[in-house]
Write a structure and sequence with these properties.
92 residues, mainly beta, Lipocalin, 8 strands, 0% helix
Length: 92
């Protein structure tokens, strides 16, 4: 299962693809949004980073026959990006 994780301010953001139909975007271990498998998915949620400050978080999952590409962005800036070529690249 490919999982991409990044720290952003005081939060841990991750996107994971189960390989069996679900892509999940999590903030601090809590599923904020999920969707069924597709070749390209963009999941989004807001993240409170201050008293009255919110930022827009997106997780992008691109599935190709040879690899899976996962990307995390906050306010349209990439904070993490990784290509997973095989199951040996996948984290638990």
């Amino acid at each position: 299962m490919p999982i991409l994780t990044s720290k952003y301010h005081d939060s841990t953001i991750s996107i994971g693809y189960s390989g069996q139909g679900q892509v999940e975007l999590k903030v601090n271990g809590i599923i904020r949004t999920k969707a069924a498998q597709a070749n390209y998915l963009k999941l989004a949620t807001s993240l409170q980073t201050g008293y009255e400050w919110h930022e827009w978080v997106e997780g992008i999952c691109l599935i190709k026959p040879t690899h899976t590409q996962l990307t995390l962005t906050c306010n349209n800036e990439t904070i993490a990006d990784q290509r997973f070529n095989s199951e040996s690249d996948y984290q638990q």
